[in-house]
Design a protein that fits this description.
Layout (H helix, E strand, L loop, with lengths): L2 E5 L9 H15 L3 E7 L13 E4 L2 E6 L9 H22 L4 E5 L6 H12 L2 E5 L6 H5 L7 H17 L2 E4 L2 H9 L7 E3 L28 H5 L6 E8 L7 H9 L6 E8 L1 H12 L5 E4 L7 H6 L3 E5 L12 H7 L4 E5 L4 H9 L2 E5 L3 H13 L1 H18 L2 H20 L1
Parallel strand pairs: 1-2, 1-5, 2-4, 5-6, 6-7, 7-8, 9-10, 9-12, 10-11, 12-13, 13-14
Antiparallel strand pairs: 3-4
Length: 419
């Protein structure tokens, strides 16, 4: 019987995006009768001191967690040590467990994980599917990470590409990411697009005190009242705010709108960028930006439903290397997206082609202010875009549609093993 081993540094109950996607798929496949296990670390994305059980069984999935030094993400050298420890310990566990009946599916945390897996898979005659959430070293080079550019970055790219060519399949999450791999010489038949997703059952459109339901009744605004936001026009940001997401455009727009007492920026989540944004908001003495920590996943529909329009941010130089997965939750919630980044980018294209949001170039705070005011003055604009976003989500980006594509892929692996 085919066995599936996922490898990623974070897994349930961690709330990071890669963890949530992996957890969703692993639990689904287990419920379908697959033999599923996960190799992961014992720490959390934003809780490095958290120590999870070394062995666990969750919803039918066997979870094996390896030790980590636990330096976290904010200290570059310490992060490298965390990575090295994971490569070695997860690699050893994989060597013990992989065999010709195994499909190994590494994600991209830590970076270059596919290289380690390829080395083990070759010797253990296991199948390999790389699940690419980003492209390294290109991301590090684009962000100017010290020591990654030049000949070293070129070498890293070559050995990464070698691991992709050795795999049975490479799953990418965006069209531009697929194009980048094809440009790198990865055969087209080894690249499969399966977008990330949101849970269409857990996240549904929520009417609030600034919007009407289809029956004309005002919706439940309990969370708005609890957070002191009743009657406000809310510009939301939900999720991680890290190095891939500049925040100066948002900050400058909030500064320009500081005297509009009926407009509030709501930032839910965490990350190094969120901490710096909070510091800058304090230095500028802005009272129109509210920060909330990550909300429990069971409240995601409510927390996403609070905002009238949601921000998605991506540095232009990272287009084709990362696809912001927060977009899918926003669309599931039936909300319009206001994208800050490259007008020709992946998310920008979706917004324009489907009329589900608007785009503002990075650094254009004045334009962002005008767009926010347009959404506020024309409530029907946001409602119509949100309704279309939900319809597009149901057509393209539900969990069930992504899972069906994964099942087809795994069935093809099973056929190869049985041939």
């Amino acid at each position: 019987m085919m066995k599936i081993i996922f490898i990623n540094r974070f897994f349930y109950p961690d709330h990071s995006a890669t963890s949530q996607m992996l957890s969703d798929l692993a639990f689904f496949l287990s419920a379908q009768g697959y033999d599923v296990s996960v190799l992961t670390s014992r720490q959390g994305y934003d809780a490095v001191n958290q120590v999870l059980p070394a062995i666990d069984h969750v919803h039918g999935v066997t979870v094996q967690r390896v030790w980590s030094p636990g330096f976290g993400r904010h200290f570059l050298f310490g992060r490298a040590l965390d990575y090295i420890a994971f490569y070695l310990l997860a690699g050893w566990r994989l060597w013990q467990r992989a065999n010709p009946d195994t499909v190994v599916i590494p994600k991209t945390d830590p970076p270059m994980l596919s290289v380690m897996v390829t080395t083990v898979a070759r010797f253990r005659h296991a199948r390999q599917i790389n699940w690419l959430q980003d492209l390294f070293p290109e991301v590090a080079i684009a962000l100017g990470v010290r020591g990654i550019g030049g000949w070293f970055g070129t070498w890293l790219g070559r050995i990464r590409n070698s691991s992709l060519r050795s795999a049975d399949m490479n799953v990418v999450i965006g069209e531009k990411m697929r194009d980048r791999l094809l440009d790198e010489g990865i055969p087209e038949e080894q690249v499969l697009l399966i977008p990330n997703w949101a849970d269409d059952e857990a996240i549904k459109p929520q009417a609030n005190d600034n919007s009407q339901t289809r029956h004309g009744k005002v919706g439940d605004d309990t969370l708005r009242k609890a957070w002191g936001l009743a009657g406000k026009f809310i510009v939301g940001y939900s999720g991680n705010l890290g190095r891939a997401h500049e925040f100066t455009t948002l900050l400058d727009a909030a500064t320009q709108l500081r005297n509009h007492q009926d407009i509030m920026f709501l930032c839910i989540g965490g990350g190094a960028g969120m901490t710096r944004l909070q510091e800058q908001v304090g230095e500028r003495q802005l009272t129109n930006v509210l920060f909330k920590s990550y909300q429990p996943r069971v409240m995601l529909d409510q927390s996403l439903g609070v905002a009238d329009v949601h921000l998605v941010i991506l540095r232009p130089e990272l287009e084709g290397l990362i696809v912001p997965s927060k977009f899918y939750g926003i669309a599931a919630a039936g909300k319009p997206t206001l994208f800050i980044g490259d007008n020709a980018g992946e998310i920008a294209r979706l917004l324009v082609e489907n009329r589900i949001g608007l785009t503002v170039k990075t650094g254009k705070a004045n334009e962002l202010v005008k767009t926010i005011l347009a959404f506020k003055s024309q409530p029907e604009l946001g409602r119509d875009m949100g309704a279309r976003a939900r319809r597009l989500f149901e057509q393209e980006f539900t969990a069930s549609k992504a899972f069906a594509k994964w099942q087809v892929l795994l069935k093809s692996m099973d056929n190869k093993m049985g041939a």
